[in-house]
Amino acid sequence: MASAYKVLGVDTSLRSSGVGVVQAQGNVLRAIEYSCIRNPASRPHSGCLRTLHAELNALIERTQPDAVAIEGVFYCKNVRTAVTLGQARGAVIAACALAGLPIFEYSPRKVKQALSGSGAGSKQQVSRMVQQILSLNETPQEDAGDALAIAICHLHHRTSVAALAPTPL
Hints:
By secondary structure, the protein is of the alpha/beta class. Helix content is about 45%, strand content about 20%.
């Protein structure tokens, strides 16, 4: 039997980061754990980053993933939003790097393409494919579903020709 390989997918934001761990064993993919790391609007910015880092540390300790896949940076019209997202990504990347995990980055378009066959696929198509691929009884919450999609994308690319696979951060 093929050995299991686990990927932690992260859809980063300051207030509601989706996280999901997907295990591949042979051609079978299954969700190990998925949820959202939430920060209330009343929590100070620094507290949000601390919570994000601490929750990721706990998830990594619990699930012991082999790699991490995160959504790449995309265009933001608002500079403040871009900076805040960058800081949240930094907390995520730091937690994963400190755990010694290789980190891979995928554009939203690449994730959609891996799951729906089209880089312009709708969120609903991607969500349905996550549910189908992982044999889930219900559709995961949107941010958690996006994190699972990112993990699945990495698993699809991991089995591709090595020269085409993205390089770790």
